[in-house]
Amino acid sequence: MNLDDWAQVYVSEDRRRRFREVLARRLDCLTLVFEHVGDPRNVSACLRVADAFGLGRVIHYADGRYHRNHQISMHSDLWVDVLNYQRFEDTVDRVRRDGFALVGTVVDDPAAIPFDQLEPPPRTALVLGSEHDGLTPEMRAACDHLVTIPTCGFADSLNLATAAAILVRHFAEACRQRGGPGVLLDPAEQERLYRLWIERDARLKLRKRGIQAEF
Ligand SMILES: C[S@@+](CC[C@H](N)C(=O)[O-])C[C@H]1O[C@@H](n2cnc3c(N)ncnc32)[C@H](O)[C@@H]1O
Description:
- About 45% of the residues lie in helices and about 15% in strands.
- By secondary structure, it is α/β, with parallel strands linked by helices.
- The chain has a 7-stranded parallel beta sheet, sandwiched between helices.
- The longest helix is centred in the C-terminal third of the chain and has 22 residues, at about 185-210.
- It starts with a helix and ends in a 7-residue tail after the last helix.
- The structure holds S-adenosylmethionine.
């Protein structure tokens, strides 16, 4: 049996329709970059946020690779690709090569403006920093813009995934409202991901049943 045969048996029509619906709303113009985030559970929680609001790819810049935690991501990491980078230059090169402006997210930087006052760049990479130190000085200097989430309580610094949820939701909606070319995935990329997701889903179901996949 080939992939299509397996998919007919193990990936229901409803599920396949859902893949198409999610892919039709996936954004090509927004991504996240994690800089030296220490706790992988925080990255997993952010992947859940990314998936929920339509992001398909994020960049993980750290000394080690991101390790999946399905319990926290709730399997969102099946639908959001994580590119791992270990060097600052490679990370920034990749983001710029893909045409994204770097929007650094900071707590305490006087150069930052409230996030909802920034006119979202056509392609936006929101850069999130580590739990203890936030963004490094070199990353702040590399960013095209710095934004902050204004607060009025005793706490000014939010948990990473909480900050990600506020920022991603805002920038995702701004992208959708602006519309135009490059906001959503092109049809060829949607088709590529559709087949990849069918394969992942079928493999997951087969593994749970203890069946060896033949594709
Ligand atoms: C726990 S915070 C880091 C706190 C660190 N002490 C600092 O001063 O940046 C982790 C990350 O979440 C994001 N974050 C948390 N609170 C934020 C806020 N109020 N505005 C913007 N980003 C925030 C930033 O990306 C930050 O680097």
